[in-house]
Structure formats: structure tokens, C-alpha cells
UniProtKB/TrEMBL annotation:
Membrane disposition: Multi-pass membrane protein
Name of the protein described by the UniProt record: Major facilitator superfamily (MFS) profile domain-containing protein
Keyword Ribosomal protein: no
Alphabetical UniProt keywords: Membrane, Transmembrane, Transmembrane helix
């Protein structure tokens, strides 16, 4: 709900404070004394919950800034660049963790916290709320400007025509993404492949997602331009997302399950590509339907929906995470 509480605050400042507070949580977790395994586990759980809360300031702030700076004809391209940063960050995070792992898990947290604090300095000096420096940038339709709090979430976002359908589409897309990430490795290994082979397929999924995120916006922008400026922008983006699901995602998933294993790597790339195109354009379509103040609230809906799927991992994964936490506490 951070997007609702900060709807009238400067998005650039919220982004900076979110980075700084996230950095503080990581640094505190890295230096907390291990007086006992139980106390350490409780402190880490509290700090990690706060870490997630403060990270929630980032996505809605970025959505409001993009909405303010970019016109409709170019918003898709810049949205794709920003959305791709999620894939890039996910790819770089393990490398950063491995660099800090020389000093143990505390070293990894120190490196993560220091990098967030370092980036916040650049954001503080380089990012403005809008081209004219105003906190609020309002789109051509001005309804919802005076809404606040939960009214902004309900009337300015959820009750918008088509928003419920987009929310449902996001729910399905995030559910599929969560299933691929959580179950793919188990599925591949159950069919006689090694853990290394399973990891390779998951990497191809993420690489495909990176390219899908990158091209989704420019592709939908180009399609809208070809249709003419009188064509409905949201409709064009939804059509591109639907085409990606029907022509790329579904055939690729069928190939992964029933096709020969020698082409499964290519199929996994296609699955990631099609899924992330749909995910990016579903979120972007929601952004096009709301006012500038509600842009951050709309961007918070997909993470809210994904909590049902991504925060309830498979039982085997939960057991493995518990064992990993136990080893971390004992070694710490």
C-alpha cells in the first residue's frame, strides 16, 4: 500500500528514500550479532520484512515518473527499458552475491546494501518528478485528481473500465511465471535431466524474458503507429500481448512438455519471451488507463496479485529454504 500512502509525495524522493532504507536494512542484517540462532532468525525476519516494505516504494515511483516524462507515443519504449531492468537486476544479483560471498553471507548483504546506497546518490541528483519539476503530472483526462487514500485505489484505479480484466490477466501471467520458476527445475530433473541442465533451461527462460521485456514496448508503439493515431492505444497493446501469448507462449509451452528435449532450450527462450511481453504490456495498459497520481497505485497491483503465487512456494521448495536458513544461522 506504499503507492496509496505516497500518492501526493514526490516520486523521485520516494525512490531515493526507498533505496536508502533498503540499503539500511541490508547493512543492519549484515552486522546484526548472532547471540543465538533463534534471536538471529527473528531479527533477520523483521529486517527482511522491512526490506520488502521499503522496496515497495520503488516500482510505483518509477511508474509515476515514466508517466510524467513520456508521451503516449513513446511511453512503451521507455517502459520496456525500465521493465528490462528487472530481468537485468535478477541476472546480476547472483553475481554480486558470489562476489560478496568470500566474506560469507554477511559480505553479500554488505555489498547489496552498499550498492543500493551508492545508486541512491545518482538518483537524488539525476531524477526529477517531471519535465517542469512539478510533483504531479496529469494526463489529458483529469478525473481522480482530488481522490486520496483508498479512494484513489478504488475509484481512481480499480473501477476504471477494463482494469479488472487487466488485473485478472496479470494474475494469470504472474501465476504462470511463478509456476515456471518454482517447478521447472523439478519437472526437468524428474524427466531424467541433471540439475545443471535444469538450471540452463531456467536461464534460457530468463534470457528470453529479458528480450521480451525489451521489445514489448517498441513493438506495441510501432503497431499503434501503423494503425493510426485514432486507434485505441490500450487496445493495440492488448492485441500485441494477446498475439504474443497465442503465437509464441502457448506453442512454446506445448513444445517444452511434449516436444523433443533437443529443442527444449529454444522453447524455454520462447516461453520467457512470450510471457514477459504479455506481463510488460498488461502493466503498461493499466498505466494508460489511469491518471498520473494513480499510476503508482496501478503499478502496485501486479505485485499484490503475485503475492498469492510467488510468496506461497511449493512444499519441496519451502523445505529446502528452511534447511538453507538453518545452515545460514548455524554458520553465522
Amino acid at each position: 500500500m506504499s503507492s496509496v500512502l505516497t500518492a501526493d509525495l514526490s516520486p523521485s524522493r520516494c525512490l531515493v528514500f526507498g533505496l536508502l532504507l533498503t540499503a539500511a536494512c541490508n547493512l543492519l542484517a549484515a552486522v546484526v550479532p548472532a547471540t543465538s540462532p533463534t534471536n538471529l532468525a527473528v531479527v533477520l525476519a523483521v529486517l527482511w520484512a522491512m526490506n520488502g516494505l521499503f522496496q515497495g516504494l520503488g516500482s510505483p515511483s518509477c511508474a509515476r515518473i515514466i508517466s510524467a516524462w513520456c508521451s503516449a507515443k513513446e511511453r512503451g519504449s521507455f517502459w520496456s527499458l525500465w521493465n528490462m531492468s528487472n530481468n537485468l537486476g535478477g541476472a546480476l544479483a547472483p553475481l554480486m552475491v558470489s562476489l560478496g560471498a568470500a566474506a560469507g553471507w554477511r559480505g553479500s548483504l554488505l555489498l547489496a546494501g552498499a550498492s543500493a546506497a551508492f545508486i541512491s546518490i545518482f538518483v537524488a541528483f539525476l531524477v526529477q518528478d517531471s519535465p517542469d519539476g512539478q510533483v504531479e503530472a496529469v494526463k489529458s483526462h483529469s478525473e481522480g485528481i482530488h481522490l486520496s487514500g483508498l479512494s484513489l485505489l478504488w475509484k481512481g484505479c480499480l473501477l476504471k473500465p477494463g482494469m479488472a480484466c487487466l488485473a485478472l490477466a496479470n494474475f494469470v501471467v504472474y501465476g504462470l511465471k511463478s509456476a515456471m520458476i518454482s517447478w521447472l527445475a523439478f519437472y526437468v530433473q524428474a524427466h531424467g535431466h541433471t540439475a545443471l541442465s535444469a538450471a540452463g533451461r531456467l536461464s534460457m527462460f530468463e534470457i528470453g524474458g529479458l528480450f521480451g521485456s525489451l521489445v514489448s514496448g517498441p513493438l506495441s508503439d510501432k503497431y499503434w503507429h501503423l494503425r493510426g493515431s485514432g486507434a485505441p492505444l490500450v487496445g493495440c497493446r492488448v492485441q500485441v500481448a494477446s498475439a504474443s501469448v497465442l503465437a509464441i507462449l502457448l506453442p512454446a509451452m506445448i513444445t517444452v512438455v511434449f516436444g523433443p528435449s533437443r529443442i527444449s532450450f529454444i522453447a524455454m527462450f520462447a516461453v520467457g519471451f512470450g510471457l514477459y511481453v504479455a506481463q510488460a504490456l498488461a502493466a503498461l495498459s493499466g498505466l494508460e488507463l489511469v491518471t498520473g497520481r494513480a499510476a503508482g497505485v496501478e503499478e502496485d497491483l501486479p505485485p499484490l496479485e503475485s503475492m498469492v503465487e510467488e510468496d506461497l512456494p511449493p512444499l519441496k521448495s519451502m523445505v529446502e529454504q528452511q534447511e538453507a536458513l538453518s545452515r545460514l544461522i548455524i554458520d553465522g
